[in-house]
Amino acid sequence: MTNEQVWQAEQERLDSVAGKLRARIAELEPEAAGLREQVTDIRKRFWEEVTVNTSTEEDFEETFFTIQQQAAVLSERERSHRQLVQQWQNLNRLLPSPYFGRIDFREDGSDLTERIYIGVASFLEEDGMDFLVYDWRTPIASMYYDCLPGAAAYDTPGGLIAGTMELKRQFRIEDGQIRHLFDANVTIGDELLQQVLGKGADAQMKSIVATIQKEQNEIIRNDKSRLLVVQGAAGSGKTSAALQRAAYLLYRHRNTLRADQIVLFSPNPMFNSYVSTVLPELGEENMQQTTFQEYLEYWLGSSLTLEDPFDQMEYMLAEQAGSGYEARLEGMKYKASESYLRALGQYAKRLETTGMRFNGIRFRDRDLITAEQMTTRFYSCDPSIRLANRVNLLQEWLLRELSLLERKEREALWVQEELNYLDNEQYAEVHSQLHKERSVFDFGERYEEVRAKLTHERRGDEGDFDYAEREEELLRAGIVKESFKPLRRSVRKLAFLDVYGVYAQLFGDAAAYREMVGEPAVPALWPDICKQTREKLARFELFYEDATPYLYLKELIEGVRTNTEVRHVFVDEGQDYSLFQYAYLKRLFPRARMTVLGDFGQAIFAQATDLRESESPLVRLYGESETTLIRLVRSYRSTREIVEFTKGLLPDGEEIVPFERSGGKPLLMTVRNEEERIVKMTAALAELREEGFATLAVITKTAAESAEAYERLTARGCENLRLVTKETLFFEKGVMVIPAYLAKGVEFDAVLINDASPGAYGRESERKLFYTACTRAMHRLQLYSTGAWTPFLSGVEDSLYEAEQQVEGYPVKG
Ligand SMILES: Nc1ncnc2c1ncn2[C@@H]1O[C@H](COP(=O)(O)OP(=O)(O)OP(=O)(O)O)[C@@H](O)[C@H]1O
Which tens digits make up the pLDDT trace of 13-51? Predict the structure, then answer.
């Protein structure tokens, strides 16, 4: 067949499928509407159908069963309606572009070649037997991503099916018309991928379903390991693969897995909004999305003020000259380490024999139960009882003690005084209580009378209901009960545990610390670390690096919190989490599989965890046999020129492979002063817009630098600027002025690095931040400096960039 004939035949098939789709949509519409009406109708008539009669036990039973029956009918109709609506939505999603791929596959031993068209949902012939379109997540469709024409095979629940792939075709279909058609033979999807990647950045991440690469497919379909770690270069599609994976899991386990049983931990709230449309686009409900900080705030935020990772980062970037900087850095590293994790475990063990601290219970300026009493009680327990169980026992004891004390308290003088100040409402309450008691009393009296008559037994002394005495008793009890309520509540909330003190006492003398945690050594600069931590705690504040260890220890004492509902946890930008955070997540979600995606080349936080090797602490946490490690080295986001440039910024960047897509070389712009920087940038932004780029970013190192650049650019008349801060919730098109650490995970058509001087990016610890900033660019990258350049550029060959020198005498490279 000539190319033209092929094209024509495919368009004919497409037209026929589109016709069937339209017919099915038309067919389903009234059905779906009909069911909806039925559901509304049943809801409305729900109580009409049920005669509520509870006079006898049988009537009651009958009523109960009718209600149950009606509810079952309703829920069945609702389920059918939901399914129908979903089917209808899937068909509508398919209509403009029913499929993006086709493979012709002949199974070994058969002479029939099956044509398999692949799209975002399945669509069957009327007979329900033949697939007109296969969902991309079906086992057979995996060959589209994994194999080239020739020998091919795919996995099914029943085993491997092998055969020959005779054709592999890709389509780009828009509004029911084939726009492009390629027969692939070498690399999967190169042409189509070229086209997709050449497009502009969006305010929302896109699904990559039509062009998933083989190594990404492995991530998406991995269903074996408890821990899946993906170490991938910037722009290698980690986030994309993660989202596709969620969609795959929801399809593969559709009868057992719900979207709310998958949780994604994102680097910041803006990223949440950036990725939130991918799953709905694929016809799935969104998973739960959160940030670790949100979680910490939830559990600790009411009693302590928490530093967030961005403030910690700002401190690291801006306070370098300040006293105590080195100690803080040492502290950050130590508090994220395996040693500290082990130390806290040991410490909790030791608390079983000594060292626990309690908050005494005070009432009206008196000690009701002292901390010493609690300590004595706590350590008089059987030594084999675990810490958290002991806490439970102590709590029960305290509640019992409070009951006793409460009873005694009724005779106290202050209660007598309060009696005189009661308001009408309190009296009314007591009276209604008394009436109730009175009727019980009267009923008892009557019962006794009847019993005496029937049994001819003499009844005992008649009772006497003393109203006044009972009234005072009740009033006193009520007063004391009310004032003891907060005490009970605080005991229930475990406020008698002085977790704060238990944590704070760690930061004292080095010898004491070693003894408490059973570790032979303390980290360098320990006295300064202690001083800083204690000063912070004294203000009821916690450093970011202390927050997770604190919560971890709190739970070792109070009892571990777990969520057994969640089945999959995804951690994006996984290199930025400490081992503590992983240990915590593992404990919190005991039934979940973990998917961790990260890039050690972008590890900008001090608590970073190396994900690269099998000896990574994260792998140790789960054990090697429970772990799969996948590396992605091909970078899709940026043009070849940008990737070649940025890989020179990392010491081990050689292994990053650019995808063959061309654009201009990165541009280094030397300017004379601030004024000139702003003039040049304003002009560059306008030019880039002229070129058709819609999503642009001026990336700075710190928040303060962003605010300043924003002010200056705005004053210069630059329009549509948006200053991004850690509070920003939505990603939008236009020009963003954004600190590098907030630009993690997102991308822009063009990036302008506001200041690439050694002053901004000079210390080794800033290398990865600089790399992260530069790798946000898809098509264009420009760097600005008033003079010398960051030393990180010394690893980049001169031929990989262009330099525009504005001033005589300024060197291009520093
Ligand atoms: N198979 C693919 N087909 C089409 N586009 C892809 C593919 N893989 C990745 N991309 C595109 O490459 C860009 C980078 O992808 P993504 O953000 O998922 O990478 P990442 O590894 O998470 O990056 P980073 O670590 O820098 O945040 C996105 O625009 C994404 O759509």
Answer: 999 999 999 999 998 877 766 666 666 666 666 666 656
Q: Compute the distance from residue 239 Cα to the ligand 1 centre, in Å.
A: 7
Ligand 1 contact, 261 CB (< 6 A): no
Q: Are residues 297 and 434 in the same domain?
A: no
Which stretch of DSSP H or E encloses residue 163?
strand 159-174
Domain end among 578, 613, 634? 634
Whether 594 and 460 map to the same domain: the answer is no
DSSP 660-679: S---PPPEEEE-SSHHHHHH
Distance spanning both ends of the chain, measured CA to CA: 60
Would you say 754 and 785 are in contact if contact means Cβ atoms under 8 Å apart? no
Give yes or no for residue 193 CB within 6 A of ligand 1.
yes
Instruction: Please check whether residue 106 is in contact with residue 166, taking contact to mean a CB–CB distance below 8 angstroms.
Output: yes
End residue of a domain, out of 75, 94, 113: 94
Distance, CA of 265 to CA of 272 (rounded, Å): 9
3-state SS, residue 608: coil
* Ligand 1 atom 9: residue of nearest CA: 237
Amino acid 17 reads V
Q: Which domain holds residue 383?
A: 358-497
Cβ of 526 less than 6 Å from ligand 1: no
234 annotated to a ligand binding site: yes
**Residue ID of nearest Cα to ligand 1 atom 28:** 637
Instruction: Please tell me the distance from the alpha carbon of residue 366 to that of residue 413, in angstroms, as a whole number.
Output: 14
What pLDDT, on a 0 to 100 scale, did the predictor assign at position 594?
96
For all residues of the chain together, what is the average pLDDT? 87
Cα 390-394-398 angle, rounded to 5 deg:
170
User: Do 440 and 573 sit in the same domain of this protein?
Assistant: no
Ligand 1 atom showing the smallest separation from residue 776 Cα: 26
On whether 233 is known to bind a ligand per the annotation, the reply is yes
pLDDT digits (tens, 9 = 90+) for 359-418: 999 988 889 999 999 999 999 988 888 899 999 999 999 999 999 998 888 888 888 887
Let me know if residue 271 belongs to a domain: no
Select the highest-mean-pLDDT range: 321-325, 428-432, 519-523, 708-712: 708-712
238 is in an annotated binding site: yes
pLDDT band at 305 (very low <50, low <70, confident <90, very high): very high
Distance CA 802, CA 782 (A): 9
Co-location of 655 and 801 in the same domain: yes
Verify that 661 and 760 share a domain, yes or no: yes
Both 395 and 486 in a single domain?
Answer: yes
Predicted confidence at residue 813, as pLDDT, reads: 43
Residues 16 and 34 in one domain: yes
CA 763 to centroid of ligand 1, rounded, Å: 29
- What whole-number distance in Å separates Cα of residue 76 and Cα of residue 82? 10
Question: Does the pTM of the predicted model rise above 0.90?
Answer: no
Residue 505 lies in a domain: no
pLDDT of residue 814: 38
pLDDT (average), residues 695-706:
95
Residue 120 phi, psi dihedral angles, 5° rounding: -80, -5
ipTM value for the complex: 0.99
Residue 208 CB less than 6 A away from ligand 1: yes
Judge whether 99 lies within some domain.
no
Across the range 502-520, mean pLDDT stands at 91
SS3 call for 188: coil
Q: How confident is the model at residue 560 (pLDDT cuts 50, 70, 90)?
A: confident
d(CA 796, CA 800): 7
Pocket-testing residue among 204, 637, 661, ligand 1, by greatest number of atoms within 8 A of Cβ: 637
